[in-house]
Every structure is written in C-alpha cells, then in structure tokens.
Amino acid sequence: MSSLHQARLWALFTVLLSVFSLAAQAAVPASTYVGMGSSSDAKDNVTVSVNVPSDSTDSLFYHFSGPSAQTWAAFGIGHQMSGALIFVTYASEDGNNVTVSPRLGVGHVMPQHTSDVTVDVLSGSGIVNGSFVVNAKCTGCRSWSGGSVNVNSSSQNFIWALGPSGTLKSDDTSATISQHEGYNFFNLNLKDATGTGGVPIVSNSTTDDNLNDGPGFGGHVNPGVAFHAFLMVAAFLVVFPTGYLALRVFERVWLHWGVQSFALLMVCVGSAAGIGVSIRQSLTPSLKSGHQILGLVVLALALTTWTVGLIGHRIYKKTKTPAKIMKGHRVLGPSTILLGLVNCFVGFNFASNNHGVIVFGIAMLLMFIIVGSLTFFNRRRKMRKGAMNTPAAFNFREGGMESGNGGPPPPLYGEGGIPLQSYANTPPVYR
Ligand code: HEM
Ligand SMILES: *[C@@H]1O[C@H](CO)[C@@H](O)[C@H](O)[C@H]1NC(C)=O
Ligand SMILES: *[C@@H]1O[C@H](CO)[C@@H](O)[C@H](O)[C@H]1NC(C)=O
Ligand SMILES: *[C@@H]1O[C@H](CO)[C@@H](O)[C@H](O)[C@H]1NC(C)=O
Ligand SMILES: *[C@@H]1O[C@H](CO)[C@@H](O)[C@H](O)[C@H]1NC(C)=O
Ligand SMILES: *[C@@H]1O[C@H](CO)[C@@H](O)[C@H](O)[C@H]1NC(C)=O
Fold this sequence. Notes:
Layout: H1 3-26, E1 31-36, E2 46-53, E3 59-67, E4 73-77, E5 85-91, E6 98-104, E7 112-113, E8 118-121, E9 126-128, E10 131-139, E11 143-144, E12 147-148, E13 156-162, E14 182-188, E15 194-195, E16 210-215, H2 223-248, H3 253-280, H4 290-319, H5 325-350, H6 354-387, H7 391-398
Parallel strand pairs: 1-16, 2-15
Antiparallel strand pairs: 1-2, 2-3, 3-10, 4-5, 4-13, 5-6, 6-7, 8-10, 9-10, 11-12, 13-14
Bound molecules: protoporphyrin IX containing FE and 2-acetamido-2-deoxy-beta-D-glucopyranose (NAG) (5 copies).
Protoporphyrin IX containing FE binds at residues 74-76, 80-82, 86, 88, 108-111, 159-161, 177-180, 183, 220, 352-353.
C-alpha cells in the first residue's frame, strides 16, 4: 500500500469518524429549558438541559448556564427548595472556571453541601462571555436524602435561583452563599431526554420543549397559585363580608343572594385552580395537607350554606314565616367565612409566604373593624329609632320638654334664672 493510499484512507477514516461522532452527539437526547434570568440579555438567561443516560441508573448529564454577574446561579430538581437536590455554581478561586456544589434544600435556609452526589465538570465549562457555563455529569443524583427524580416523568419539576449580584470566588463546595435575588419554577420532559448518554448540546437555534417562561427574576410568583390565592382572599375578605352587610345593614335579601352567589362562584373557581396546581405542579398532589383538607371542608360548607339559604328563603316566601333551617344558615354562614379566613392564613403558611401572612392579617383586622362598626352603628341607629317608640319616650314628649334640635334655645342662666357668679375673678367662699 502506498503512502498516498494510506493518507487517503486515513482521511476517509477521519471524515467517517467525525460524521459518526457528530451523529452520536446529535443522538444525545435532551430536554431543555431557557428562561429569562437577571435581564432579557441572552447572557443573563438561565438554561438547563438534561440528558438521562439509559445505560445508568444513578447518573445524569446536564448543561447549565446563568449570568456570571451574580454571585451564584443554581438549578434544582424538585418543586421547592425543601427536598430538592440543588446544583449551585459560582466562580472558582482563580476566577477562570466554575465550582459546582451539589446541595440539599432543607427549607428556606442555605442548602447544605452533600458528598453523596458527585459532579464531574466536563470540557466546555467555564465563565464565558458573562455567563457561568457548566457541562457536567452527576453521579448519585437520581435519588437523595429527601427526594428523587422521576426519569419517566414528562413534566419533572425543577427550580432555579440566582444569587445577588457580585462575585463569589471559591473552590470550596461548602462556601457560604447568600439568599437569592430571584427564582423560578419549570418542568422538563425527562422521558424524552432518555437514551444515549452525553452532555446535551444547546444551540441558540434549538426550539426545545420548554423555551422561556417569561420573567422570573424578582417576579417569583407562581401564576396558578397567585390566581387561586387572589380569588380566595378576595372572596373571604371582601365579597362574603359585603354580602353580609347587604343583608344586615342594607337589608336587601336579593343583593345578599347575588353577592354571596358571586362569592361562592369565586370559591368554586379558586378551589378548582388550587386543586389543579396541586396536582399539575405536584404541590402535595394527594391533597392531604392541612390547607388542602380545610379548603375542601370550607368549599363544602360554602355550598351547604348557600343551598340552605336558598331553601330557607323559598319557605319564607311561601309561608310568610321565617323557616327553621334559616337558623342553620345563620350559624353556617359566619362559620364558613371564619374558617375560610383561617384557611387563607394556613395557605400563606403552606406557601411559606410570611409577607402574605402579615399583610393578610392586617387586611383582615381592617375588614373586621369596618364590618363590625357598620353593623354596630346600624344596630344603634335602629335601637334609637326603637327607643323613640317606647312608652317612656312618649311620656317624655307629652311632658313638652322639647329639647335638642328644633326646640327653642334653653333659657340663658342669669336672665331671671339662677344668678351666676363669676368664678374667674372671685372664687366662691364656703362658710
Ligand atoms: C442562602 C441560601 C438561601 C436562602 C437563605 C433562601 C431563602 C429562601 C426564602 C426565605 C424563600 C421564600 C421567599 C418567598 O417567599 O418569596 C425561598 C424560596 C425559594 N428558594 Fe431559596 N434560599 C436560598 C437558596 C436557594 C437556592 C440555592 C435555590 C436554588 C434553586 C433556591 C430556590 C428557591 C425557590 C425555587 C423558592 C420558592 C419555592 C420554595 O418555597 O421553596 N433557594 N428561599
Ligand atoms: C474548567 O474545568 C473543566 C474541568 O476541569 C475543564 O474541562 C475546562 O476546560 C475548564 N474551563 C476553563 C475555561 O478553563
Ligand atoms: C462573546 O460574545 C461576543 C459578542 O457577543 C462574540 O463575538 C464572541 O464570539 C463570544 N465568545 C464566545 C466564546 O462565545
Ligand atoms: C420507569 O420506567 C422503567 C421502564 O419503562 C421502569 O423499569 C422503571 O421502574 C420506571 N421508574 C419509575 C420511577 O416509575
Ligand atoms: C448563536 O448566538 C451567537 C451570538 O450570541 C451567534 O453569533 C450565532 O450565530 C448563533 N448561532 C446560531 C446557530 O444561531
Ligand atoms: C433568553 O430568554 C429570553 C426570555 O425567555 C428568550 O426570549 C430568548 O430567546 C433567550 N435567548 C436565548 C439565546 O436563548
């Protein structure tokens, strides 16, 4: 074989090899999420792409990037901090590469480094053009103390978070990080990401399953949860109490019926939203947490109260006498509202929203003051009206002692009445 021949064969071989390796790379299945991180600039995006190697039961490959203008960037497997396996990335001590620290979320405190999970940082990683870039293989990362990943899931829950801006340079995987400035939630289809193992290749032209989710930085609100909370808080804090006033102060049964029916509708839609997000986003999908159980009880109570009220009013219309079951309505109504308000507190607690607990507490106090004082003044007004019609009041009027508004001014003391002494100049002398 001539050397020319050999060279040609080598060239062919190399071409074939690179074609094969390209094909192999393309064959690495992955599921990718791109979300807006600290700004709409592409370098500040948060990208998470995961590959599930089918020939392994305890490893995953991932590509991650986030803005390096923040002290740290992280993503985690799980639907909230608690129970999540979190991969925190920050600059290495020399500032040229990245340190990746696998940590376990234990609540709203700094996640703790775990040595049960190993992360191999692979080529292509570093701090590139204003972004942390991580290509990695993790081992021991399919289940951990507190949780596991469901590689069969078409919507596995993930979270990401970004630290405050600045630089944190450390090679220590237990380095102290300070609380995030922003975070968000997303899902990845891991079923579709299963196959040949390898680091996922994310090109900016890929249109993957899960591109972007709108702003996440600062606006860390779960829209489904927010919709649920808005409807429930509005119903129990504003609409139900208004319906109460419609009856007790404005004394309009039809208005009471209309307002309470609207509030009930809000509660039904809000409950559906709550059940929906609980199941779809795996926020206690068994519906067995205190907030969820109490919520279902309140929903049942609200429906019962409404039905009893309707039946009671029908009976009253027919018989012209108050129905006995209206007593039930008068107990059920306020209890439902009270329990609903209690469950708003429990809900804010369930979502670990301390701010919400405080704001809601103040708003609830205001509501009680407003409803209470309107009811009180209305009652007093009625009692006064009632007082005018008592025998004593008639007697009073008969006696001709007209005083107050409309009557003649009282006689001036000193004008033929009791002589007045000027206390200002000469104090009275007691003998
Ligand atoms: C020093 C470390 C950390 C502290 C002190 C901390 C603290 C907190 C606090 C107080 C909240 C509630 C905030 C609110 O109600 O808006 C929260 C929520 C959250 N954090 Fe962190 N965090 C830390 C690190 C991380 C990391 C590394 C991640 C990585 C993904 C993360 C992801 C989240 C997410 C997704 C939420 C919302 C869901 C949930 O309630 O758990 N956090 N964190
Ligand atoms: C960062 O470290 C990884 C693993 O050691 C290496 O493959 C990569 O080339 C490094 N990146 C830079 C920019 O040095
Ligand atoms: C960094 O960004 C500049 C301009 O956006 C671009 O020209 C350059 O190729 C980028 N470098 C890398 C390593 O991506
Ligand atoms: C995922 O699916 C595979 C086969 O399709 C099965 O062997 C495995 O037990 C499943 N895992 C879970 C967590 O459902
Ligand atoms: C990816 O983005 C870079 C700049 O950020 C650009 O130069 C490059 O052409 C893009 N690649 C594709 C495939 O769109
Ligand atoms: C960065 O994120 C924004 C918002 O999600 C998205 O519109 C944009 O296409 C992303 N940029 C890249 C390069 O993926």
